[in-house]
Design goal:
The complex is a heterodimer of chains A (109) and B (539).
Chain A lengths: L1 E5 L2 E5 L13 H10 L10 H17 L5 H7 L6 H5 L3 H7 L13
Antiparallel strand pairs in A: 1-2
Chain B lengths: L38 H6 L21 H15 L1 H9 L11 H6 L6 H16 L1 H6 L10 H11 L7 H5 L6 H14 L5 H13 L7 H19 L14 E4 L3 H4 L3 H15 L3 E3 L15 H18 L3 E4 L4 H13 L26 E3 H10 L15 E3 L3 H7 L3 H10 L30 H7 L1 H14 L3 E4 L2 H14 L4 E4 H8 L29
Parallel strand pairs in B: 1-2, 1-3, 3-4, 5-6, 6-7
Helix pairs in contact in B: 2-3, 2-9, 5-9, 7-9, 11-13, 13-22, 14-15, 15-17, 16-18, 18-22
The chains are: A mainly alpha (109), B mainly alpha (539).
């Protein structure tokens, strides 16, 4: 376990930098994770980014899985490849959304 | 995760090593090993010695009697597997296999020569199980089993993709992959395995697939692809799940349900089955065609394979069709019948569309979708417009397991030639039986192992680059889910202008469906040839 310090917050991450507890996430945590992933130093994050993050979290809560990457853009009504535009890739988007790393046998693409 | 060097930064030498192989230490550095299996995943399936550890630790926290466990494990397997015993004794170390391994070609590390990889285990066998080795030791290539040897095994048995290209060139027919399979099985006895295998195995055991997709998520994902197909051609498909009494159970790797570009391949499956009116069902329990248990132990392979047949029995289907996958077929073709068969509660597969009986699957009752589709085309049951793939110049990567593992060479090419007009073969010594591995098979397609993956994939990528430069090839087709996951990364690294396609994605592009609206795009939303000016929706 590691501690990510962000302003006055201390955020608990696992050894690979994933948020330890799904429930610990809020918009400030998203900023901290985006900062540590080198995605954005802005806080709050952009509207399109937050739409994607919230959808990923809702999907995980309901289905216990990350969503299919290209389904995300359709569901949040953003152009295709939105996760690549708003974040470097779907893996980083999922990480900033605070869902656990998925041990899949396949990369998230 | 390690930073991956750029292609021009990779150092590659095949020169003479400075020290003898027994005296060369094993050095774990970022990029040349996979993370170890997490304790929680080992516990799920009852694997030995669950703990948190790292290959970089001096102390691997092995069980107190680890040496005895390994030697007894080896003794048991020498008795059980006659091939292993024969392979231990008959190698003359001629070196015919040495430069056939993609990992040796891409790394220059002599311990990636198949002959030497086998020698890592064979040297211990000599010391413990042969009179000459016991008496003469190192003189006859025997050595003691030490913790350093265990570390060396871990490094090199997880730097082999079990692709068997080496075995093709062995004058004695030694299957070096069997050394890797047994080596990994032994390592598992003392808790030394990798998480990219242990995680999917645990997921598969608990939820039915490697990705851990639960039934409601599995259905939701397929429903999304149904919507996608409707957006492309106006056809609404209604797949069924867990339906008792269906004629066919369809099982594919879960990567097709989740990860691009396999998801487009899955759209091709849905379209094909709808068009021919196949009476089939998906299962949300047997929702994995792959079998990472095969990369763990024979026992684990058997456990994970059995669920497909248990589900087929529960649903009362007649036979099983498997989707595009590689190692799934090695398990089905070479092991299933002896470990879980015969599946005599099923019927010998007979296509209700063409009337063809697949006697080749008389015992396993499970056929590969590509042979099923080839049969449909051969019998004129599909209306295909190959010009819809005219924007692609296609080559074909034989998956090691379907090509070398089951002799599946011509069916995919027959389908390809029916659905596209521009098909170009890579050089003869890189295809069919001699195909080069993607470099990421057998559970090694993880991020932390990326440098070795790009090195191991170099021979394959080099052949793709050849046809790319010579013929303008821009599409690499394949029939394996790990290929679909691994080759895009490999192409992006070595041949960036080439895109990866599953074979049934190309079938889906070419398939003319009854009642379809005018097709303007392929399954990816890219404009079809001649439709570049159409207003395309972003799908």
């Amino acid at each position: 376990m590691t501690i990510l310090k962000y302003n006055s917050r201390e955020i608990r991450l696992d050894e690979e930098g994933y948020l330890e507890k799904f429930e610990d996430w809020d918009e400030t945590v998203a900023c901290a994770l985006a900062d540590s992933e080198g995605v954005s130093k802005e806080c709050p994050l952009g509207e399109h980014q937050m739409e994607i993050l919230k959808f990923i979290r809702q999907y995980y809560e309901r289905f216990g899985s990350a969503p299919v990457a290209r389904a995300v853009c359709v569901r949040v009504q953003q152009p295709g490849k939105c996760e690549y535009v708003q974040f470097p890739d779907p893996i980083t988007a999922c990480k900033i959304a605070g869902i656990p790393k998925l041990e899949t046998g396949y990369p998230l693409m | 995760m390690a930073k991956v060097p750029k292609p021009n930064e990779l150092e590659l030498e095949h020169g003479m090593p400075q020290t003898g192989w027994m005296d060369t230490p094993t050095i774990f550095r970022p990029g040349n090993f996979s993370y170890p299996g997490k304790a929680k995943n080992l516990k799920v399936v009852g694997l030995a010695n669950p703990r948190e550890w790292s290959p970089n630790d001096a102390d691997w926290k092995l069980p107190a009697d680890w040496k005895n466990i390994l030697l007894e494990g080896l003794r048991e397997r020498l008795d059980k597997y006659r091939t292993l015993k024969v392979y231990m004794d008959i190698c003359v170390r001629c070196g015919a296999c040495a430069d056939k391994c993609h990992f040796y070609l891409g790394s220059g590390d002599p311990k990636n020569m198949p002959v030497l990889r086998a020698e890592l285990l064979r040297s211990v066998y000599r010391k413990e199980f042969t009179l000459a080795g016991k008496i003469m030791g190192k003189m006859v290539g025997a050595r003691d089993l030490t913790e350093d040897v265990v570390k060396e095994w871990f490094m090199y048995f997880f730097q082999c993709t079990e692709c068997r290209r080496c075995s093709l060139f062995c004058p004695y027919g030694i299957d070096t992959a069997e050394f890797t399979i047994i080596g990994r099985e032994l390592l598992n006895l003392i808790g030394c395995n990798i998480d990219w295998i242990a995680g999917p195995v645990a997921n598969c055991y608990q939820t039915g697939n490697h990705l851990g997709i639960q039934p409601h998520a599995f259905k939701d994902m397929i429903d999304f692809f149904v919507d996608e197909i409707e957006a492309v051609n106006g056809i609404r498909i209604e797949p069924t799940f867990n339906r008792k009494g269906a004629e066919v159970l369809f099982v594919t790797p879960s990567g097709d349900v989740f990860a691009d570009p396999g998801t487009y391949t899955l759209m091709g499956y849905l379209m094909l089955f709808h068009e021919i009116g196949l009476d089939y069902t998906w299962s949300t329990y047997a929702s994995e065609g792959g079998n990472f248990g095969f990369f763990t132990s024979h026992e684990m392979m058997k456990r994970l394979n059995s669920k497909i047949y248990a589900e087929a029995k529960r649903l009362g289907v007649k036979y099983i069709i498997g989707g595009e996958c590689g190692h799934m077929w090695r398990v089905i073709n070479q092991y299933m019948d002896t470990v879980n068969g015969p599946a005599d509660f099923l019927e010998v597969p007979k296509s209700s569309i063409t009337g063809t009986t697949f006697h080749n699957a008389a015992s396993t009752k499970m056929i590969h979708l590509v042979e099923f589709t080839a049969d449909l085309i051969k019998n004129g049951k599909l209306k295909l417009d190959a010009t819809r793939n005219d924007h692609l110049k296609v080559t074909y990567h034989d998956s090691c397991n379907t090509a070398r593992g089951m002799g599946f060479l011509d069916e995919p090419r027959y389908v390809l030639n029916s659905v596209c007009n521009n098909f170009y073969e890579m050089p003869p010594n890189t295809i069919r039986e001699q195909t080069f591995c993607c470099g990421s098979g057998s559970g090694l397609n993880n991020d932390e192992f990326m440098e070795m993956r790009m090195r191991g994939g170099l021979p394959r990528a080099n052949a793709v680059r050849h046809v790319h430069e010579k013929f303008g090839v821009n599409a690499l087709s394949c029939i394996c889910a790990i290929d679909r996951a691994a080759l895009p990364t490999l192409m992006n690294y070595w041949v960036p202008d080439v895109t990866v396609y599953g074979l049934h994605e190309l079938v889906g592009n070419a398939l003319v469906m009854e009642g379809e609206t005018e097709r303007t795009t392929d399954l990816r939303g890219e404009p079809l040839p001649g439709m570049e000016d159409s207003e395309n929706e972003d799908i």
